[in-house]
Amino acid sequence: MHYYGNETIMSLEQVLRLKPNEVRILEWVRTYEYLENQYGLDDPVNEFLEIKCVAEGVLVRKNRITEFPEYECLEERLLADAEEALAILQEWATEILQRLASE
Question: The organism sits in which domain of life (predicted)?
Fold first, then answer.
């Protein structure tokens, strides 16, 4: 896990263990653009996820890297509470990890 200003960057696996109260404390979390493979090397992941506490609620985004550092937002949802938003974020993280495991 790394901190950049008010942003916390963590792995997809760490996101799966994230708790709603941690989202509220951290306020802004996004996932790495790399994932460690079975050989201990980092493979690029062309998607990253974000969860961010905003005045209107909790924002979750699924993004695709087009040409680093440029990216496009694939999906965005604004939810009332951290529990709902975190469930969606963790669902997306699981989908990405399953897809990468099957490649």
Answer: Bacteria
Q: How far is CA 94 from CA 3, 14, 40, 55, 80, in A?
A: 23, 11, 20, 27, 22
CA dist 71 and 24 (Å) reads: 25
Domain that holds residue 26: 2-102
Chain mean position to CA 89: 6
Report the alpha-carbon distance of residue 69 to residue 77 in Å, rounded: 22
3-state secondary structure of 4: strand
56-95 burial, b at 16+ Cβ within 10 Å, e below that, comes to ebbbbbbbeeeeeeebeeeeeeebeebeebbebbbebbee
- The residue with tokens 């040409």 is 67
**pLDDT digit string (tens) for 10-58?**
989 999 999 999 999 999 999 987 776 667 767 778 899 999 999 999 9
